[in-house]
Amino acid sequence: MSERRKATVGTRIGMLAYHALMLTISAVFLLPFYWMTISAYKSNAEIFSDPVTLFPDPIRWENISALLTRDDFPFVQQFLNSVFYAGTVAVLVCLSCSLAAYSFGCLRWRGRNLVFALTVCALLMPTIVTFLPVYLAWSKLGLNGTYWPLITPFLFGDAFFIFMLRQFFMGVPREVLDAARLDGASEFRIWWQIVMPQVRTPLVIAGLFATVYTWNEFFLPLIYLQDREAFPLSVGLFTFQSQRAVEWSVSMMGAFLTAIPMVLLFLFTQRLFQRGLSSTGLK
Amino acid sequence: MGAVRLTGVRKLYGTIEVIKGIDLTVAAGELVVFVGPSGCGKSTLLRMIAGLEDVDYGVVEIAGKDVTEAPPAQRGVAMVFQNYALYPHMTAYDNLAYGLRRAGMGRVEVDQRVQETAALLQITELLPRKPKAMSGGQRQRVAIGRAIVRKPEVFLFDEPLSNLDAALRVEMRSQIARLHHELAATMIFVTHDQVEAMTLADRIVVLNVGRVEQIGSPREVYHNPANLFVAGFIGSPAMNLLPATLGPNGVALLSGPVLGGPTGTGQEVTLGVRPDRLTLAPPEAAHLTGEARLIEHLGDETILHLRLPEGRALTMKLQGDVSLQIGERVHARIDMAGACLFGADGMALSSMFSKIVMSSHAPIG
Predict the structure, then answer these.
(1) Does the bond joining B257 to the residue before it have cis omega, within 30 degrees of 0?
(2) Predicted confidence (pLDDT) per residue in B9-30, tens digit
(3) From the list B47, B85, B103, which residue is nearest A173 (CB)?
(4) Architecture of the domain defined by B234-350
(5) How many CB atoms lie within 10 A of CB B285?
(6) Chain A contact for B58 (CB, 8 A cutoff)
């Protein structure tokens, strides 16, 4: 009995140490976010005051209106651009990648595994390697400065999301697809009416991942878009910060408001994110 | 209801031939059961009839039409799967209606057909439910309903009862038998369960490694197996196969006793004896003597597993609750009625001792 109690005490100490370590690591990751948040409500002078204040005093709510009313930083327009960009990519990813995943996961055709392997190989190709020829191609089409080069590629799928969705599509029983074929459904109809409703959760996960990825995407919008009114927030914030380096409080408010939608999205869909990560073997 | 005719049907996966030239005719309104061990190709053959697997060589005809190249939906077949394969996001009603809607049927007619089928299968109260809110038996009834509602030429069943518990299996089996009778439907049923095969089938097709070993009524296949494979496969417990010779005085077991029957000049044969054709006998009247290795008391009968002196196993099925001890010496007598003889090539020589005359084990077509 006493041995068992000892073990329990030992386990408790172990758990305490574990949680202390985890909290410390979490704090390290949270610190920049906390710093951004409090700086958003401070004056420029307070941000650099010595000693450092850990909470803004007073809370400068006017920083919000200062940001939203600036002529050299069309925040609202850029916010809407980001919503459009991320939303469109998310929808396209769900449609195009699920169609490819259906083919790779549910249909049998000669050379399927080879084509899938080649598709996955695309993951190994960094954007930086291909961006120049692709950029030149879009230039020739005269579509630089628009969202076409940023959005159109997702109409043809994305290797990561095809890979992720295929795992779920493979879980749809073959007999259900066969039953639909016997019922007279075409492959396209089976994809849309039979398989898609069964993989709703993975689709939402893919959409969420695509949204977060696109929301934070910086490089491609930076090279394709030239007009400030057309920038998404990622590029807009960077441009503003690099041009108005001294206005830290406005920059921080911009960064804070840019991060908030993704934080809220994560809070409401935390479980889906975790499932997505565990299913792709990313964590 | 249409007949199904397979002519020289073959299937290859790469270079491996899994269906090796099958000729078979299933008459209109007949219930034929495919049985065979795992991997014998019975499910593949069924899927080829359904159009879910390509036919590499040969012709599949349903109701007199060549459907070898036709897509599944245009073959006039409906299939019931082992794992039900219901559309999980649809209600039972929509599961039944889906195929009818795909066929372009109007809403009123769809509703009428679904309600009729539901009434026939007593699943009307299940119609608003989704599959996850149903038990296994209910799901399978809905799956059968989905097949019936389309009024197909041929029903295909791919081990539909395997996922059900024993009691439900018996109930569903009798329901399928009733449906077959009521609808006068052509049905092809795949199973590895011999009881299902024996009780449901008009004819049994025994398959092994992609070939038909025997086609016949359940009684034919049981009493007159065409070869050693069928003899060993059909019947539970399996038929005892004993080495023997055909001597001038008849069949002689290698262990000595002469059983009479057909004579010969010392050819090696195999004598097949069903476990229920062995009885306990006094030592002087016994043909075989062995040691009891395992005794299974099933209440109304006792299965006795013996080991013969030469190391061979022998199974006896005795009526009633026989009290014997493991290790006890048991004397058995062979009841010659119903015994079978197989030649050195494994094919049945005849069933010399049987009153049941086997018609033919050649493919019927």
Answers:
(1) no
(2) 999 998 899 999 999 999 999 9
(3) B85
(4) Beta Barrel (2.40)
(5) 9
(6) no
